[in-house]
User: Which sequence fits this backbone?
């Protein structure tokens, strides 16, 4: 019996080594040679959204969320069972067996993560693929961009649905289907965005995401675009498009953000157009705040239409209500993850989509 277990452990360790080597090798090659990463994204990677994405899309709920709950439950059960066995001395704990299984599990997770997510950080920048030039911008340029985004939001501000308190609401609008359609439309305009987009899914315990500072999440294990349905309505359509963009291999946050804005901007949906404009404006205002005096910024901000300022204020108040220790931890974990994956700005990378917006504007492309 002992020999049989030892043999199984050796097989598990050998398989773990192969998984680590394959995942690490793929990651190294794609990060070292952008041309290889570009080939990978346009070729082998397409298996995941086209095949796995279709299969997991058969479930109306977030399969990734359910798997996480099951893993937590299984871990707690194993731990409690081990403690009981230890206290009652019913049988010796097989530490080696448990460690070998744990190593195999980590290796499998690492390998899948490399193949469905991490390798894509090595692809050529989206700016290059779209012919955009990123360069430093002046305060005047940033102000002009914010005005334009505010005008975009204002253009549909009175046509979108609002609740009794005057806040923007998606109501019964099928923003999931509209966001999916907007990404398909974007794919017809730009080849880099072309491909299959599965149905986005709301997380069942969405408010839990708010407590860890997340509006959406791309699942590299189930190839799903999950979003926080408890977040303010003005950010939901934009977030859905952002997460869907990740499924096209646009894994850098600023690039997925720019793709989301572009999809919302070209959408026929008033809800998407408003969400894209106000979400981009929020990033623009954050950048502007750092480059102006408080008095100048206050004057600029107060000139915005009242309904727009109301939605911006309601959004900030929502996140303040959910700020806690878990919020700070979630933010720090996300920041560390992004920095490890060559996004030096960490969580600030989300706001760098403004650089892409400014570059897009300089090409002569109209934003209004």
Assistant:
């Amino acid at each position: 019996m002992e020999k049989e277990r030892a043999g199984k452990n050796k097989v598990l360790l050998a398989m773990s080594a192969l998984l680590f080597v394959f995942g690490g090798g793929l990651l190294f090659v794609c990060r070292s040679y952008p041309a290889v990463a570009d080939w990978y994204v346009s070729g082998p990677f397409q298996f995941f959204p086209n095949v796995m994405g279709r299969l997991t899309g058969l479930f109306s709920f977030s399969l990734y969320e359910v798997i996480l709950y099951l893993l937590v439950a299984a871990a707690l059960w194993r731990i409690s069972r081990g403690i009981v066995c230890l206290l009652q001395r019913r049988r010796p704990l097989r530490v080696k067996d448990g460690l070998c299984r744990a190593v195999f599990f980590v290796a499998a997770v690492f390998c899948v993560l490399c193949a469905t997510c991490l390798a894509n950080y090595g692809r050529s920048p989206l700016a290059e693929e779209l012919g955009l030039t990123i360069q430093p911008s002046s305060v005047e340029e940033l102000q002009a961009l914010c005005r334009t985004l505010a005008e975009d939001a204002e253009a549909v501000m009175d046509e979108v649905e609002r609740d009794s308190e005057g806040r923007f609401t998606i109501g019964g609008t099928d923003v999931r289907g509209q966001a999916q359609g907007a990404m398909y439309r974007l794919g017809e305009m730009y080849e880099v965005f072309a491909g299959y987009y599965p149905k986005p899914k709301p997380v069942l315990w969405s408010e839990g995401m708010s407590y860890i500072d997340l509006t959406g999440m791309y699942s590299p294990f189930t190839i799903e675009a999950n979003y926080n349905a408890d977040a303010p309505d003005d950010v939901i359509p934009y977030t859905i498009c952002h997460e869907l963009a990740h499924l096209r291999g646009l894994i850098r946050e600023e690039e997925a953000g720019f793709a989301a804005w572009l999809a919302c901007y070209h959408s026929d949906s008033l809800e998407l157009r408003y969400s894209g404009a106000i979400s981009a404006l929020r990033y623009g205002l954050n950048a502007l705040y750092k480059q102006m005096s408080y008095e100048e910024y206050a004057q600029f901000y107060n000139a915005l239409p009242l309904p727009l300022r109301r939605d911006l204020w309601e959004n900030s108040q929502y996140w303040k209500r959910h700020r806690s220790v878990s919020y700070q931890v979630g933010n720090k974990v996300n920041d560390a993850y992004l920095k490890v994956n060559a996004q030096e700005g960490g969580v600030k990378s989300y706001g760098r989509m403004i650089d892409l917006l400014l570059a897009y504007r300089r090409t002569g492309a109209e934003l209004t």
About this structure: Residues 211 and 327 are 5 Å apart (CA to CA). The longest strand covers residues 216-219. Residues 345-350 have pLDDT under 50 and may be disordered.
